[in-house]
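Following up on my earlier thread - several people asked me to post the actual chain instead of describing it. Fair enough. Here it is, all 91 residues.
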Amino acid sequence: MYKLAGELSQKNAREVAAAGNDAIAQGQSDFDFSNLVQIDSSAVATMIEWQRQAAQYKKILQFHAVPASLISLIQLYGLSDQFHITPAERH
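Reply from S.P.:
Thanks for posting it. Predicted structure:
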């Protein structure tokens, strides 16, 4: 499982996308968002990029522990059906 940590925002989205693409190329298909503390709409674009990369390898990505704020953005953009998402647990 590929674990993201810290931030996924406009200021680092390209680097995070590239690292995720590398992980997909190495066989990863599960992405864990549980250690992300900051996101913005760039996270949605990054996830779309990963989906494109995964399609080249005929893989289906699973996104785990996705923060509610990111799920809200995905719904706002009408992309809910594009991703396999497990929401973050609520405490």
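The CA atoms of residues 72 and 80 lie 9 Å apart. That should answer part of your original question.
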